[in-house]
Specification:
The protein is mainly alpha-helical and 62 residues long. It has one domain. 79% of the residues lie in helices and 0% in strands. It is built from 2 helices and no strands. It starts with a helix and ends in a 6-residue tail after the last helix. 3% of the residues are buried.
Amino acid sequence: MTGDKWVYRMVVGFLGGVLIIVAIGLILLGYAGEKPAPEGLIALGSAAVGALAGLLAPSPSH
């Protein structure tokens, strides 16, 4: 069961990395200013934020 901690940490790290890359991409696209940001990039960032919130939220205790 100790492998579960590492899988959890890897998933959180991967989602955090995706979030950082998307944020940097959106900032760079904003500075370019030629086109609006692609909806797929915004959706990817939103999904990463939602997944991180779901993983990091405390589980309810009964």
